[in-house]
C-alpha cells in the first residue's frame, strides 16, 4: 500500500454534505443543552480529513447548525415512535453519516437500511468497521436514488410487505423535482398502509437571504439545491401520504434555537412544512 492509498480521498460534493452535517452534529454534541448527542460524528469528521470548509459564511453556517440540531432530534423522536407504533424496519434514504442504527434506544429489534451513494457508504463502512449496533440489524445499500433503487433494497432483505418507517433527511433538495417525485412514488409502492415517513422539505431556503452564500457555494461546487415545495401537505396527499406539519418553533427543544431565525423565515414567506411526518393511507 502506498502513502497515497491511506490518505483520505476527497468525496464528491454531494457526499461531502454528509461530512459537513456530521461536523454540525459533532459540534452540537458538545453544546450546552444539545438537541441530540452523536458520539460517532467527530470520528467521521476526523476520518474524512480535510474536505474543505462547509459552504457558506458564518451566518449561513449558524443557521444550518441550528436546523441540523433541531431536525436530528425531531427525526430521532419520530423513528422511535414509528417503531413503537408497529414499523419493524427503517429505511434511511440518503443516510449519509447517520448513526441512528447505533445510537437510538430502539424499543425492539429493528432492521435499519441505509441507502446512499457507493462512495459515501464505502467511507462510512471503513470508519464503523467491526462495530455492531446493540439492538438493530444495520444493512447498507449502495444505490443512486436518481436511478431504479428498490430492487437493490429488496435484495438486501427489505420486505415491502412489512410496515416501514422511511426517512428522507437532508436528501430531496439535492434531487431534480422529477427525481424527488420518483423517489416518493417508489417509497409509496413499497409501503403497506400504516407505514410512516419523515421528511425534510425545503420550503423557503431558496429565498432565505441568510443562506445565499451557502446556496451559491453548493451550486458552484456542483451540488445545488434543486427541489423545494411551497405547500408540502397536498403534494404528499396526492402521492398517498397523510402528513402532519408541526410548527418546529413550538417544539420544546427547538423554540430557543430557532427564535433568532423566525423573522428571517417570515421575511422569506416561509409557509411551514420544513419538517414533516406522515402515514401511508389505506386500510390494511
Ligand atoms: C446533506 S447529506 C444528509 C445525510 C443524512 N441524511 C443526514 O441528515 O445526516 C445528503 C446525503 O444524500 C446523499 N445523496 C445525495 N444524492 C443522492 C443520490 N442521488 N443517491 C443516493 N444518495 C444521495 C449524499 O451522498 C449525502 O449522504
TrEMBL record:
Annotated Gene3D superfamilies: Vaccinia Virus protein VP39 (3.40.50.150)
Pfam family, one: LCM
Sorted UniProt keywords: Methyltransferase, S-adenosyl-L-methionine, Transferase
GO biological process terms on file: methylation
GO MF entry, a single one: methyltransferase activity
S-adenosyl-L-methionine recorded as keyword: yes
Enzyme Commission code(s) on record: 2.1.1.-
Enzyme class: transferase
InterPro entries named among the record's database cross-references: Ppm1/Ppm2/Tcmp, SAM-dependent_MTases_sf, SAM_mthyl_Trfase_ML2640-like
Family: Belongs to the UPF0677 family.
Function: Exhibits S-adenosyl-L-methionine-dependent methyltransferase activity.
Protein's name in the database: S-adenosyl-L-methionine-dependent methyltransferase
Organism of this sequence: Actinacidiphila oryziradicis
